[in-house]
Amino acid sequence: MKSQQRQPSKNSVLQQIRDMEIPVKSVIDVGIHFQTRELMAAFPTQKHYLFEPVADHYDKIEQNYRDAGIDYDLNKVAVSNQDGFADLAVSSIRGTDEVTHSSLTGADSRGQEIRRVPTLKLDTFVAEHKPAAPYLIKIDVDGAEEMVLQGAPKALEDCSILIIEAAVSAVSTRIEMAVAAGFVLLDIVDICYNQGCLWQVDLVFINPNLGTEDWRRATQIVEPDNWCSLRLVRHSRDGFWKRKRYQLRKKLRG
Q1: Which of 102, 129, 218, 249 has a 20 to 30 Å separation from 56 between CA atoms?
Q2: pTM score, two decimals?
Q3: CB neighbours of 190 closer than 8 A, spacing ≥ 6?
């Protein structure tokens, strides 16, 4: 595999996914703000199905994806655990009119603008639009990720890679939900800290039914009878090169 120098970032894990040839025939991107650069760079020829309920972002989204030459469909809905309508709380952390966050979580909405928006389950979308499978699903919806998963049990069956944003308080719950749906944790990336404390991460999962032989070899469990001390391996390796250097010096001396 090419990507031996791994880093805890979406760019790095997506390169690893490409190197391992994990199948991704389309991208389902739930909650994109203006764009998801990492997915655009990793999968420039696949179709991207975009989901964003904040109307303020639509012009910029369409411009970004057109300029990048990405084949896309923009779905102007909030993905949730039911089809219908819901209240979306929008806010800004910049002290301007630009919307930076939106949520369907039903949390305290004081000081936030409330908008009525259409909602859609991923199961409904996949059944109606039949995106090319297997596909990658990325979910970043400011706290409502679990609602998205609740509305996607059938959609997840044809998902090869699942990426979920998680605040530190939600990490265990979201891992449990993904594992219950049949996924295996592949990586934890884009680790964010707030005042020195872990605050937020992106969890990356793989569907083992769609994993490749490269992935299976890289993650196979070694039985205890086959364990080998890393220190012994290192000493053996170091001893080999010491002998090589000795032989070379001896040869040079004639």
Answers
A1: 129
A2: 0.82
A3: 8, 9, 10, 200, 201, 202
